[in-house]
Known about the structure:
The chain is an alpha/beta fold.
Amino acid sequence: MVTIYDIAKACGFSPTTVSKALNGYSDVKEKTRRLIKQTADEMGYYPNSQAKALIKRKAWNIGVLFQDGENIGITHPLFAEILESFKKVAESHGYDVTFISNKIGDTRLSYLGHCKYRQVDGLVIACTDFYSDEINELLDSDLPIIAIDYSDERVSCVTTDSMAGMTLLYDHLYDLGHRDIVYLHGELTYITLDRIKALKKAAEKRGESFNDEQLIEAKYYSVKTGYSVMKELLQRDERPTAVMVCDDFTALGAINASIDSGLSIPEDISIVGYDGIQISQLLRPRVTTVKQDAEKMGALAAEKLVRLIEQKDEERETLVMLPSIIIGDSCKNKE
């Protein structure tokens, strides 16, 4: 491995001057800097990340803590797009990205312990159980953090406006004449409770209400659960005329269950999803859904986290994005 001492010997400068030139110090003449950098490139020099971290007091490393209840991982249709956008922006600022878990080899660590072990400069948390003790240990720490689809005064957050999203879907169904509407929601996480609250307010604005029989628990991004819960729902003596589903993937299961039960969509029952992922518009019928701008969410999260890392006076804030509705072919007027 080529060191600064090898470069110093090759170009005739002291190791201190070489180090300053390679690390951008202003007290090195431009001609000298160019010569040293050219020599370093020709010799195949790569900076040692640990040494660079000691000099800069920064590791140029951002942690990513990503979990989902179905263990879909980074193939998750929505969060894969968010994290890819986040990664591109982080890398454009010179940062590497490291996935955070609670194990190093055979040794179990807390998430915060793993962050310290990897010397991350900041952390993005996405799609996880924000109520767990380990997550709260992170949120209470002094590590720069941004959370996706969450809101907490302890950290910065990027989220989509649940009130706007649920209102768009409810109003669409209401305007089509639907009153007997059921919501297949996900596990009782922060975002689920936020959406249920928003849905109830949307109904109240129209002089309607949502009772417990209209709220049925399913699972996020589970075609299997969407299918089984929808099958059970269709056994009711009076089935609903419209069903709102917590996400587009789970909606696929609900659609398949309806078809397998001999129903036609939207002639016999209307179904809407959430997230606006690509597959929802490739299905037949195309799913009416609310679109979250995943690419913009990831980019905003990365830009904010970089500012939190690099500008010590940067304040925490929650960035709220407005969703839009995609009108597909999965709903029709109630006759």
